[in-house]
Design brief:
Layout (H helix, E strand, L loop, with lengths): L1 H16 L3 E10 L5 E7 L4 E7 L4 E10 L8 H4 L4 E5 L16 E6 L3 E10 L7
Length: about 130
């Protein structure tokens, strides 16, 4: 009986290790020749995070993972939230709508046990024009 329970444990562990995962990273790429800044509300900390992005720099603004593979794009508001503001050095707000999935450059790579989504929002100087 002990060997049967032991064998079931090994089989169960083997099946669990085959579980697939989905990972998603959301990044901002500053293509301006000056610093930009983003602000986001972190609900789990009840705090507003403000961070600078230097010219040519990229910064991760959100991360998501879940069990199972998801081949469809994940809406940025599900990960980043609704309160996300990008400003330039003059305090002008970015006009590019981050909630619109078509504004993100999306790549997906699929391997045996995981699929990785990468979302990049490229910010240019013209995105701050009125």
């Amino acid at each position: 009986m002990k060997s049967f329970v032991y064998l079931l444990g090994i089989i169960g562990f083997g099946l669990c290790s085959c579980e697939s995962e989905t990972y998603a990273n959301y990044e901002i790429h500053n293509k301006c020749n000056y610093n930009i800044q983003y602000k986001t509300l972190q609900y789990y900390m009840y705090d507003t995070i403000t961070e600078n992005v230097y010219p040519g720099g990229m910064v991760n603004v959100g991360y998501f993972s879940k069990r199972g593979k998801q081949y469809t794009a994940i809406n940025p508001t599900e990960v980043i939230g609704d309160y996300f503001i990008i400003t330039n050095v003059n305090g002008d707000t970015c006009k590019l709508d981050f909630k619109e999935l078509s504004n993100w450059y999306i790549t997906m790579s699929d391997s045996k046990n995981e699929i990785v989504h990468k979302y990049v929002l490229e910010i240019e100087s013209t995105d701050f024009e009125k």
